[in-house]
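[Discussion] Sanity-checking designs against the backbone

I'm trying to build intuition for which residues belong where. Below is a structure token string of 198 positions. I'd appreciate it if someone posts a full sequence so I can compare it with mine line by line.
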């Protein structure tokens, strides 16, 4: 069974800097031997959790948006890691990202299905130091509460995760430092997932 790394792009905008940064991370994960799959929240509707309690009893959700279609993918045994990529909004993750993470409570309540999966985060801000690290920490909290194993960007940038600058004057595609951290994060997630799950 090939190990899979799922990447979730949590910008409301299609095909912009967050998706670009996520793809950089997932390319590196693929080069490290993993299969990859993308969830792009810009192309779907995922509402916030309404605490209806349905998932206390079963791996199912009462809401009729796009999240239920993601349940088989996210709960598959082949998933070794999850990369969350979010724009920085007011120093933290987007509302779309929080809604997605909250809806994932069903996996915790039904056998801690994310337990031991490797988690990493890429944050993209309009400013070089606009809160990428605080956004990453906020996502890490959800990953820890899911009993995931969180990693930073590893060799050879070694900090909190992917920290990308969409306001780079030459364009975000030229934010070499930030994109290197995103690639290193993807590689680190895939390599540790292989060590834990193979
Ligand atoms: C409501 C809102 C709040 C934002 N807050 C921040 C911020 O605190 N720090 C920052 O660096 N950029 C901030 N930005 C800019 C976005 O993080 C930046 O444009 C990002 O690249 C958007 O990602 P996207 O291109 O994938 O949509 C904010 C943008 C919006 C719309």
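Best answer:
Here's mine. Compare freely.
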């Amino acid at each position: 069974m090939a190990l899979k790394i799922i990447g979730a792009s949590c910008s409301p905008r299609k095909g912009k800097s967050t998706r670009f940064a996520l793809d950089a991370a997932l390319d590196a994960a693929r080069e490290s031997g993993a299969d990859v799959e993308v969830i792009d929240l810009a192309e779907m509707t995922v509402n916030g959790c309404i605490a209806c309690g349905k998932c206390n009893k079963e791996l199912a959700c009462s809401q009729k948006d796009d999240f239920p279609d993601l349940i088989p993918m996210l709960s598959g045994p082949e998933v070794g890691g999850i990369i969350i990529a979010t724009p920085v909004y007011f120093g933290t993750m987007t509302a779309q990202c929080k809604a997605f993470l909250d809806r994932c409570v069903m996996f915790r309540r039904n056998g801690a299905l994310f337990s031991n999966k490797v988690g990493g985060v890429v944050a993209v801000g309009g400013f070089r130091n606009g809160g990428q690290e605080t956004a990453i920490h906020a996502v890490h909290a959800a990953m820890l509460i899911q009993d995931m194993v969180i990693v930073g960007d590893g060799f050879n940038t070694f900090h909190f995760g992917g920290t990308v600058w969409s306001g780079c004057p030459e364009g975000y595609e030229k934010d070499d430092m930030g994109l290197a951290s995103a690639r290193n994060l993807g590689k680190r997630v895939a390599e540790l997932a292989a060590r834990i799950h193979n």
